[in-house]
Amino acid sequence: MKVGDVLDRWEGVAEPGKVAEFERAVHRPEKSDVLPPTFLVVLGASFVERLVTEILPVDRTRVVHGEQSYQWLAEVRAGARLQAEAVLADMSEKAGRNGTLRFFTVEITWSSEGRPVCRDRSVVIERVPE
After folding, report:
1. Where does the FAS1-like dehydratase domain start and stop, copy by copy (predicted)?
2. Which of 7, 37, 95, 98 could cross-link with 86 by S-S, CB 3.0 to 4.6 Å?
3. Could you tell me the CATH number of the domain that includes residue 97?
């Protein structure tokens, strides 16, 4: 596995009922047909599970979620069909107080109708066994 490798590709639909349920869960004050900023976590949930159990060379019992960011490039409305491509954007190791830490940065490009609509970056951190 190396930086730049495509880790997975998948599609999903931002079903209006799921969007409304998510809005209630996050207490979104205004009602809108535009997706809430963090709704993509719903469409990416099964990928994240596979990421730490099958795709990355990590022991999932030693993994924490480091950070998450979304760069929206266009508004996406409930009902949209989205395509996702996840790429390993960076890999590094650092010495920590309690041993070595490995960092995996994953970037998911979400597209709709052939154009990118969001860049979703997350960092997975593993504490390497001694």
Report:
1. 34-118
2. 7
3. 3.10.129.10
DSSP assignment of 80-91, as one string?
-EEEEEEEEEEE
CB-based contacts of 18: which residues, under 8 Å, 6+ apart?
Answer: 42
Say if 1 falls within a structural domain. Answer: no
How confident is the model over 24-77, as pLDDT tens digits? 787 777 777 788 888 898 889 899 999 999 999 999 999 999 999 999 999 999
Closest CA to 48 of 91, 104, 4, 111: 104
- Domain residues for the domain of 39 are 6-127
| Residue tagged 């109708």 (tokens) | 113
Q: Note whether residue 84 is domain-resident.
A: yes
Residue with tokens 């480091």: 66
| Structural Rg of the chain based on CA atoms | 16
Q: How many domains does the chain have?
A: 1
